Amino acid sequence: GAVVSQHPSRVICKSGTSVKIECRSLDFQATTMFWYRQFPKQSLMLMATSNEGSKATYEQGVEKDKFLINHASLTLSTLTVTSAHPEDSSFYICSARDAGATEETQYFGPGTRLLVL
Amino acid sequence: GDSVTQMEGPVTLSEEAFLTINCTYTATGYPSLFWYVQYPGEGLQLLLKATKADDKGSNKGFEATYRKETTSFHLEKGSVQVSDSAVYFCALRSNTNAGKSTFGDGTTLTVKP
């Protein structure tokens, strides 16, 4: 089946630094990717919808200047957490929609665990 | 807006017991319904799905039926194994909301030998 990868799988950074997380669709083209955040023992919260070649659409309450999303190609979207703070520590998960599938299908990446010290 | 409500956990069962995790939803239009499973430290994996009323999704012994009249999509398995221990998420994807997915809060299942 289709595979979505995320890199890095785990990152620890100092407060005030920026961290970039990559989401790649490995064997299909994804015109749309979604970024989610998951707190411990909680559900996924949609942060933004990323469309290839255009600006991301952010959900209410998500700071677009803090969580920069770039979807530069049909197989890659990046999320950059700028000036990270300890409260940004979380599990970030992306998903990608297979543009070529006859049935709309969304595949999830394995997640990136961010710890801000 | 769209919402998903699933049974609160945690759920603890003995091996070979019957499992039911309830899930109900509210949505505009005609959503597709999903169950995802998340093992510790990992991302979500699609377990099963149903795209229209009365469809039954099934996989690895799990099954769920899309019930439009009761707006439900309960997950069942006849005989659970220790390896089924994980967090299960019910989700819907609306066909009228830019394809966004809405997730339930997750139900933690622990199966003891």
Would you write up a description of this structure?
The complex is a heterodimer of chains A (117) and B (113). With 117 residues, chain A is an all-beta fold. Helices cover 0% and strands 52% of the residues of chain A. Chain A has strands at 4-7, 10-13, 19-25, 32-38, 44-51, 57-58, 67-73, 76-81, 90-97, 106-108, 112-116. By secondary structure, chain B is mainly β. Chain B contains no helices and twelve strands. In chain B, the strands form three sheets. In chain B, strands 2, 5, 6, 10, 11 and 12 form a six-stranded mixed sheet that branches. Classes of the chains: A mainly beta (117), B mainly beta (113).
Which helices and strands, and how do they pair?
The complex is a heterodimer of chains A (117) and B (113).
Chain A: E1 4-7, E2 10-13, E3 19-25, E4 32-38, E5 44-51, E6 57-58, E7 67-73, E8 76-81, E9 90-97, E10 106-108, E11 112-116
Parallel strand pairs in A: 2-11
Antiparallel strand pairs in A: 1-3, 3-8, 4-5, 4-9, 5-6, 7-8, 9-10, 9-11
Chain B: E1 3-6, E2 11-14, E3 19-21, E4 23-26, E5 32-38, E6 44-50, E7 56-59, E8 62-65, E9 75-77, E10 86-93, E11 101-103, E12 107-112
Parallel strand pairs in B: 2-12
Antiparallel strand pairs in B: 1-4, 3-9, 5-6, 5-10, 7-8, 8-9, 10-11, 10-12
Key attributes of the depicted protein:
heterodimer, A: 117 residues, mainly beta, 7-stranded mixed beta sheet, 4-stranded antiparallel beta sheet, B: 113 residues, 6-stranded mixed beta sheet, 50% strand, globular
Sheet/helix structural class of chain B:
mainly beta
Runs of chain B with pLDDT <50, length 5+?
none
Q: Gap between N and C termini of chain A, in Å?
A: 37 Å
Report on the biggest sheet of chain A. 7 strands, mixed
- State the shape of chain A: globular
Tally of extended strands of chain A?
A: 11
- Annotation field: number of helices of chain B: 0
Helix-and-strand structural type of chain A: mainly beta
Subunit organisation of the chains: heterodimer
Question: pLDDT below 50 for ≥5 consecutive residues: which ranges of chain A?
Answer: none
Percent of sequence in beta strands of chain B:
over 45%
Morphology call of chain B:
globular
Biggest interface and which pair forms it? A-B, 22 and 20 residues
Distance N terminus to C terminus of chain B? 41 Å
**Rg measurement of chain B, Å:** 14 Å
The number of helices of chain A is 0
